[in-house]
């Protein structure tokens, strides 16, 4: 795993990278940046995404106030009602390492702040 220049090297980031490695695996030859999207760039989806976010919430005591899994991830398995449930949410937003890092430091998920809106 290669980290981009300026990538944070503190206890929180080391813990986050360890968690990402355990839960979804990290590519050996890809350079990771804060802008690397775990869903779009690293292929995290479905049950892996659900488990990752549950573990993130527990391990770092993050309050997932307005976290919406459909915003970032495809649901696991086949769901005949998926289009109805995810209406207007077909294109997934990137969920980046930087967003996870900021949420851990703030101990809450604030979509507007994390996405920079």
How would you sum up this structure in a few lines?
The protein is mainly alpha-helical and 117 residues long. The protein is built from six helices and two strands, in the order E-H-E-H-H-H-H-H.
Walk me through what this model shows:
This protein is mainly α and 117 residues long. The protein has a domain at 11-21 and 34-42 and 57-76 and 83-117. The chain is built from 6 helices and 2 strands, in the order E-H-E-H-H-H-H-H. Strands 1-2 form a two-stranded parallel ribbon. Helix 1 (11-23) links the parallel strand 1 (2-3) and strand 2. The protein is globular and about 30 Å long. It starts with a strand and ends with a helix. The model is unreliable at 85-89 (pLDDT under 50).
Keywords:
globular; 117 residues; mainly alpha; 6 helices; 43% helix
Terminus-to-terminus distance? 31 Å
Oligomer: single chain
Low-confidence stretches: 85-89
- What is the overall silhouette? globular
Question: Which class of secondary structure composition applies to the elements?
Answer: mainly alpha
Largest sheet: 2 strands, parallel
Structure annotation, total helices: 6
What fraction strand?
A: under 5%
Total E-strand runs:
2
Order of helices and strands: EHEHHHHH
Kindly report the average pLDDT value: 88
Helix content: 40-55%
Please give the radius of gyration in angstroms.
14 Å
Strand order of the largest sheet: 1-2
InterPro entries: ACP-like_sf, DUF1493
Pfam families: DUF1493
Protein name: DUF1493 family protein
Organism: Pseudomonas agronomica
